[in-house]
Recover the amino acids of this structure.
């Protein structure tokens, strides 16, 4: 049976990225994003919801995110969903879904405005950012 696992999300970071390294020296950046959604019910009532997602970026990609992003800054990510499973101390089985970031893009703000969270205009943007996502 064929399978496909791909997710595209754009939202704001809910916390500053946390950068860690494995014993082998591989960087892992963990962060959360919030995505706003709204719709109107048949009654005319407008409903706004916020969805929260935990994300993980590995290697150089994770290091760049940790360096240039902070809480509240927008980000566009492309990745895959990964399920983590474990048992807690009482033996209860637990699981959660995380987004494994394959690519990302800076969004919002001007390129010459360093406060938006992206690299300064005088520097070249890292090659981990993929600009050929079609819309």
């Amino acid at each position: 049976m064929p399978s496909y696992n791909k997710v595209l999300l754009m939202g704001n970071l809910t916390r500053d990225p946390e950068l860690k390294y494995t014993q082998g020296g591989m960087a892992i950046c963990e962060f959360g994003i919030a995505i706003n959604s709204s719709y109107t019910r048949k009654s005319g009532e407008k409903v706004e919801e916020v969805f929260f997602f935990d994300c993980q970026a590995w290697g150089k990609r994770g290091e760049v995110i940790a360096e240039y992003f902070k809480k509240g800054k927008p980000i566009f990510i492309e990745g895959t969903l990964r399920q983590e499973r474990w048992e807690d101390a009482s033996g209860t089985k637990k699981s959660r879904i995380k987004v494994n970031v394959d690519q990302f893009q800076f969004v919002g703000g001007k390129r010459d405005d360093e406060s938006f969270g992206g690299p300064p205009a005088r520097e070249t943007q890292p090659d981990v950012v993929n600009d050929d996502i079609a819309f």
About this structure: Confidence is low (pLDDT under 50) at residues 120-131. The CA atoms of residues 1 and 81 lie 18 Å apart. Strands lie at 7-13, 18-21, 27-40, 46-58, 74-87, 93-106.
